[in-house]
Every structure is written in structure tokens, then in C-alpha cells.
Specification:
Largest sheet of chain A: 4 strands, parallel
Structural class of chain B: mainly alpha
Oligomer: heterodimer
Shape of chain B: globular
Number of helices of chain A: 14
Strand content of chain B: under 5%
Distance between the termini of chain A: 44 Å
Order of helices and strands of chain B: HHHHHH
Strand content of chain A: 5-15%
Number of helices of chain B: 6
Chain lengths: 308, 103
């Protein structure tokens, strides 16, 4: 296990410098929208919180952390914050493969497509799409989180933004529950799948839904993705733990102990494999972990966009 | 031997924890916790209740093993919100470490 303070201080320094946990400009991270005609005005803003876009980089970081965990070099991980920014940018560009980046970017593009097909009045402004800061909250740096959240909330409010459409459970929880508490600013927050009106009649397919902890328990939003699946005519194969009692994929421990993540993930994978059905995830962190463990899984956005 | 600090529950309120004294040590949290590890989080909660601040700080790294998955909070029969208590103890430990590194 890594020294939590070293990891937190590194992430906090990166968030202060670049408004994301990696210490590289968010413009390098957020590129899914570049060849899509975007509306810049509308009723609600699509707010990705940069989570899907981050997964290829999180996976590479986790791989490196896993190699060094409990080794002599682990104690030096916090020194990452003293690396010059041009080297951070260079390393960041080379860190993840184009294939991995395209894979996770395509999920955000699919979400965009689902919203368009559902006639949702929405817009997107990449320069206002910030990381929520949720990792700082989860790791216990409440002051760092509050500082970052206040910046994000004030910036969005200054642009007159009141309604957000979110795409992942962590950002949804941050914007819906934590931001009003720590910033005093509230937004009307809906997930993209609550707005999906995509319908089909694919009676031949059956899937198992993996509820992430934040949707299943903290936000009690498990019914909405099930309705989306129902609207496609797809059947559900129940997994042993779901809804408010869903099992964690182990993702939250990734930054301090990849080994612990692997142990917890293994148990969830056994539960999911027992259903015999392909798995549908709704969280980019869960999806990345499940795919790495060899589970036949895809994101809800990928599945729904196929019918859109 | 541990020093007991009776005002600890009050100190934890400043870390966002309002439910320190609610727990009656039923152990549901430790039974359902995916870590399956030496009475986590029950032991930490007990330390917090009796104000064993030094014990918590001595074992503080264990707090970051918590996945913040919320199963303990979901099943706690007292509504004592064990997950939030662990998060509050993380805030306390981090503040302590940061103060120490500035000394």
C-alpha cells in the first residue's frame, strides 16, 4: 500500500495546477468532441466531468502503481509533483494508446448520440467541462475538494448554467449531492440515461447490469438504467448483489492499493460470471476494471447507441 | 495503553462527522465490509467513540483501505453512517499529517 498522504498531495497539487488529477492540460484529455457538430447553447449542459476520457490514463497509472506497490520505489511516488510540466505533458501524450483513448471517447460520443436521438435540448462547451474533484473528497482532502468545487461551481454559474446532464456516477454524486453542501451552489442534475428515449424490440438479447456503488446505493438510481434496457426489449439476468446492495468493483482503492482493488474485483467478477450473461456497466471505472479482469462487458452507452 | 479523549466526538464534528456516538457496536459493518479484515471498520469506530485519538492516528493508513462503497452505511441498524465516519477520520488524519509535515 502506498503512503496515502503522498498520493493525496500529488493529486491535490495536480488539481490545483491543471484542474484534473493528472497534472496535464485538460485539453489533452478531452478530445472526444472534435469532429462532432456541437451546439453551444441550449437548456442543459452535457457535463462529462472528464471521467470516461480519463480511464485510459487511470489504467496506465494503476499498472505502474501495481508494479511498484510495496517496493523500495513506492516511497518516491509523491515526488511526481516536482516533475516539470513540459515533461508531464510529454509523458501524458505517450501514456495511453490511441486505441484505448478512442474506445473510451467513443462512449461519450455514444452518449451525445443518445441525447440527440432522444430530442434532448442540450449543449456542450468543452472549456466548461471540468473534472468534479471527487477523488479529493473520497481520499479525505475536503479542503482541496471544496476549493476546486467552488471554482467549478462559480465558473458554471457565471455562464448561467443551471442544468447539467452527467454521464458517470462519481460526477453525478459530486454535482448532485456534494456541490450544494460544500459550495452552496445547486444545479439540476440528471444522468443521460434518465433522459434516453431510445426504443427497440430486441427480444433475443439478455444482459446483466452491474450497478456501480454511487448509482446503486448513494443515489438509488438503479431503476432508470433498467427502464432503458426494458425500452430496448432486452431481458435482464439478475446478479447476486445489485441495486442498493450492489458489490463494489474495488476501483476506489486503485490510487492507494492496486493489490486491494484486484482482490475486491475478483469477488465481484465471480458474482457477475455466475449469471452467464454479458455484463453492462454504467461507470467508466467499473467498466475498465471488469474488462481488465476478462469479463465480457460493455458500457450502457455503447449498448443503447447501437439502437439509436 | 491508550489515552482517552472524551471530547473527540466534538472534534470529529469539525471533520463532518455527526454520528460518532450513535454506534452500539453491533458489528454489521464489519460483517458486510468487502475488506473482510480484522473488524474493519468497527475497530476504528470503537476507537473514535472512546476518543482513542492516538490509536487512530497510529493505524491511520488502514483508513485508506476503505472503498467508500457505502455497504456499511446501507446496512447499519443504528443509522450511524460508518462510511462517513471513516471518511471523517481520513480528514482528521490528513490534517494531522499535513500539520506534522509543516513543523
Amino acid at each position: 500500500m502506498y503512503d496515502p498522504k503522498a498520493i493525496i498531495d500529488l493529486i491535490a497539487a495536480n488539481v490545483r495546477k491543471t484542474r484534473n488529477p493528472f497534472g496535464a492540460p485538460s485539453s489533452l484529455l478531452n478530445r472526444w468532441w472534435r469532429d462532432i457538430p456541437l451546439r453551444r447553447e441550449g437548456d442543459a449542459m452535457l457535463f462529462t466531468g472528464l471521467m470516461y476520457q480519463s480511464v485510459p490514463y487511470i489504467e496506465q497509472t494503476t499498472k505502474r502503481l501495481a508494479r511498484l506497490e510495496d517496493s523500495f520505489w513506492a516511497r518516491y511516488v509523491g515526488l511526481g509533483r516536482y516533475v516539470p510540466s513540459f515533461l508531464v505533458c510529454l509523458g501524458f501524450r505517450l501514456m495511453a494508446t490511441d486505441r484505448e483513448k478512442r474506445k473510451f471517447d467513443s462512449m461519450v460520443r455514444d452518449i451525445h448520440k443518445i441525447l440527440v436521438k432522444s430530442n434532448v435540448d442540450f449543449f456542450y462547451r468543452p472549456e466548461l467541462d471540468y473534472y468534479s474533484g471527487i477523488l479529493l473528497h473520497d481520499l479525505g482532502d475536503e479542503e482541496g475538494f471544496a476549493r476546486h468545487a467552488s471554482f467549478v461551481a462559480k465558473t458554471l454559474k457565471a455562464k448561467g448554467i443551471e442544468k447539467l446532464i452527467t454521464v458517470d456516477p462519481h460526477t453525478t454524486y459530486a454535482m448532485k449531492v456534494l456541490y450544494p453542501k460544500v459550495t452552496g451552489e445547486s444545479f439540476q442534475v440528471k444522468t443521460y440515461f434518465e433522459l434516453s428515449k431510445v426504443t427497440a424490440n430486441d427480444g433475443s438479447k439478455r444482459v446483466t447490469l452491474h450497478d456501480p456503488c454511487f448509482y446503486g446505493r448513494y443515489l438509488e438510481l438503479s431503476d432508470a438504467p433498467r427502464r432503458v434496457i426494458d425500452n430496448l426489449g432486452i431481458g435482464h439476468v439478475p446478479v447476486r448483489s445489485s441495486g442498493v446492495f450492489t458489490s463494489c468493483c474495488g476501483g476506489p482503492a486503485e490510487s492507494v492499493s492496486p493489490r486491494l482493488t484486484a482482490e475486491v474485483l475478483h469477488r465481484r467478477v465471480e458474482e457477475l460470471k455466475a449469471t452467464g450473461a454479458p455484463v453492462v456497466a454504467m461507470c467508466p471505472i467499473c467498466l475498465g476494471n471488469l474488462l481488465r479482469a476478462g469479463v465480457q462487458a460493455e458500457d450502457l452507452s455503447t449498448l443503447v447507441a447501437r439502437y439509436a | 495503553m491508550a489515552l482517552v479523549y472524551p471530547q473527540f466526538a466534538e472534534e470529529l464534528k469539525r471533520c463532518g462527522v455527526e454520528t460518532t456516538l450513535e454506534c452500539f457496536n453491533r458489528g454489521t459493518c464489519a460483517a458486510i465490509c468487502p475488506l473482510i479484515d480484522e473488524h474493519f471498520p468497527r475497530k476504528m469506530i470503537r476507537y473514535a467513540q472512546v476518543g482513542a485519538r492516538d490509536k487512530i492516528l497510529a493505524n491511520a493508513r488502514d483508513l485508506w483501505r476503505c472503498l467508500h462503497c457505502g455497504l456499511c452505511t446501507q446496512t447499519c441498524p443504528r443509522g450511524a453512517n460508518p462510511g462517513e465516519l471513516i471518511l471523517g477520520l481520513r480528514r482528521l488524519a490528513l490534517k494531522h499529517w499535513r500539520r506534522q509535515s509543516h513543523v
